[in-house]
Amino acid sequence: MTQPTDIRRVPAALTLAAHGVPVLPLRAGKGPFGNCRTCARNVCGGRPNMRTPGPCSCPYPCHAWAAATTDPHTLTSPAWASAWRAAAAVAYHPGGAGLSVVDLDNADAIAWARATLPATRTVVTTRGEHWIYRGVMQSVNAVRPGVDIKSLMSYARWLGPGIGATAALPAVVRALAVKAPPPVRRTPQTLTVPFTGQSGACPHRTPTYLDRGIAMAVQRITDASSAVHAAVYRVFLAVLSTHGRCGCLTESHISRLFTAAQAKGESARHCTDAWTNARTALGL
User: Which of 183, 283, 187, 202 is nearest to 241 (CA)?
Assistant: First the structure.
């Protein structure tokens, strides 16, 4: 005889909650359960932890990710029982657990992550992988083809603990969520801000590391199919976050980046503005 779904899901949810991971049930199709009649269309004002006004204290798993909890009494309450019986999976709120998930939906996205991102805890999913980092940030969908970021105000399926050590959230992932500011309108002028970073001992053991990084950055610009200005800014931010403080960037490296950007239609002035804005954002 098949066990009821709630018997299979609740123990996993309670174990996660005991480790400080806020959890909630997901229905078939990987979506959260809809709001109850009292909370339909969010007329109750939403839960306080949903960052919207309103004193909602609904006992049901309403309001999607904002329903995630670590309270064992809530998770085993009669109000949640019907949801657990119909649940297809357990989900969790990464931001509430101090985590960020880079959701990679296909083989191309995984290949990009392996070539670009620091190694971290990895969980295999139905279509790809979840790369889990320690730290929270804004959740953003489609930061590049096949890549979503799930952290604050979002949820992810629990698919097991995965493998590997959980690394700290790197600047290159944070940079994916940053939209390039609009170009500054000003009279074209000669750039007076130095391109290179602060002097000091270079942390890169061989020039090959830097050359490979610049090559991948050029390829990311070349592969941009839309929002080219934003893509260029994100690439500049990623390059500077890794190489901008040791003084190893040369005019030749920056010229390669600018040439790739201009081949995608960016003007020299826009390249300069994007580079300057990226340096400013990183405090260089």
Answer: 283
List Cα–Cα distances, 245 to 74, 205, 239, 282, in angstroms: 49, 15, 10, 10
pLDDT tens per residue across span 194-251: 444 444 455 565 667 778 888 888 888 888 777 778 888 888 888 888 777 777 778 8
- Token pair, residue 98, equals 């101090």
Q: Tokens 């990311």 belong to which residue? A: 220
String of DSSP letters for 54-104:
-----SSS-SGGGG-B--HHHHTSHHHHHHHHH-SEEEE-TGGGTEEEEEE
Query: Rounded to two decimals, what is the model's pTM?
Result: 0.63
Long-range contacts of 266-275 (CB under 8 A, 24+ apart): 266/228, 266/229, 266/232, 269/183, 269/188, 270/183, 270/229, 270/232, 271/232, 272/191, 273/183, 273/184, 274/180, 274/183, 274/229, 274/232, 274/233, 274/236, 275/195, 275/236, 275/240
